[in-house]
Amino acid sequence: MTLAGMGVRTNLQARMLTPCITQYNSAALHPIGSRLYTYINLKWTFFIFLVLFEGGSLICGLASSSFMLIVGRAVAGMGSSGLMGGGLNIIAGAVPMHKRPLYIGILMGFSQLGTVCGPLLGGAFTQFVSWRWCFYINLPAGGLCIFLMALVMVPVQVPNLSGHGFASRGHVYLTRRFDIVGFMLIGGGSVMLLLALEFGGKTQPWDSSVTIGLLCGAAGAFVVFCLWMHRLGDEALIPRSLISQQVVYTAAEWAGYQFIAGAGRGLYLQIPILAVQSYLRPCDLSIGMSTIVFAQTLGAAIVLVIGSSVFLNSLRHEIPVAAPDGDLPKILKAGATGFRQLFEKNHSLPGIIFSYTLSLQRVFYVVTAIACLAFLSCWGMGWKNIGKNQAATEVEVESGAALNEREKRRKSQAQVAGHAVETGVRLSLSAT
């Protein structure tokens, strides 16, 4: 979905609009996706999310208006909210623990490859073919994925709902298990927070009633969600027992590796997933992994909005100082790729370039500060061996325990049989 967001030639605000809509939907729907993977067949749930994503891409490609494009991005965001979590759940169900780092690394590698190549392909499609191909390209890739997935079986356990009275009161059961109230609270709070950060300092002042109202609404929704989560306990959308395990929280904060941006991102993305798969019970894996993907998606959306806000506000402050003759509205409307053509022969161009450079530096200052905080929070984690030898040892221990149990059962049965024979002999002697 990065293709069109970077490929369409328009101003900075329009470039961010539809990607932000996709991020909003994806972040808000991640928690409910974890419940779907927990209680519904993993393979078919993944199919549903993939079809939604492909349908959204098709709507965007056929869009005849901005409204249709926004709707398409919203549908695609709904679909993408379950793709990463579904892929991680499939790996957890089909791959042994000691081989998961390799497969998770491959999955994350392709994900980051798309992030890097997406803008380049989007620009090429827009310039030489049509911006619609930024979305059409998703269709053959998704179709190939659906075809391959249809040929394989995913060995994942799904709880049997028949024992819970599902047939007679399925809607009540699903409402409790999926925690619709919690989903509405955390989804609404996430959207209000992102919209407040998007509007603040751009279309609305920070002290406006709209921005303050959205921030207060987001804070209230998150507080009520925490209280609701405490009340429901392990039946909440994000179970309380999941949050209480420190390894989940600290492992998810390994963003300190962003000091070495590219290599660090490849290293830290899979660490939380491995930590969750090593420590959590199998029945909690899908919820734990989807919680991490939700945190990563919501964090990316928040940082995207904060970075844009810092960048634009810095430009508004620096351009009048470095280039007093520059037309600020025209510069902002032209965007990073168009202002050179407007001021190519103007003596204000060096000052405008300096303002852009300084504004970009301030965006990276924000990212560095966040990375420093994340680095400090990762201390104190324990060690757990997930190698093949450790897995074999665990299997041997489990096999030994099973053998001991069978031996005890055999001895117990032999003792019962001996007592029965002895009792029969005594009865025979008494009768004689």
UniProtKB/TrEMBL annotation:
Keywords, sorted A to Z: Membrane, Transmembrane, Transmembrane helix
InterPro entries from the UniProt entry: MFS, MFS_trans_sf
Location of the protein in the cell: Membrane
Gene Ontology cellular component terms for the protein in this record: plasma membrane
Pfam families: MFS_1
Transmembrane spans: 44-63, 75-95, 101-121, 133-158, 178-197, 209-230, 292-312, 363-382
UniProt topology in membrane: Multi-pass membrane protein
MF-aspect GO terms: transmembrane transporter activity
Top-level taxon: Eukaryota
Predominant subcellular localization, coarse grouping: membrane
Protein family per UniProt: Belongs to the major facilitator superfamily. TCR/Tet family.
Protein's UniProt name: Efflux pump
Species whose genome carries this gene: Pyricularia oryzae (strain 70-15 / ATCC MYA-4617 / FGSC 8958) (Rice blast fungus)
Taxonomic lineage: Eukaryota, Fungi, Dikarya, Ascomycota, Pezizomycotina
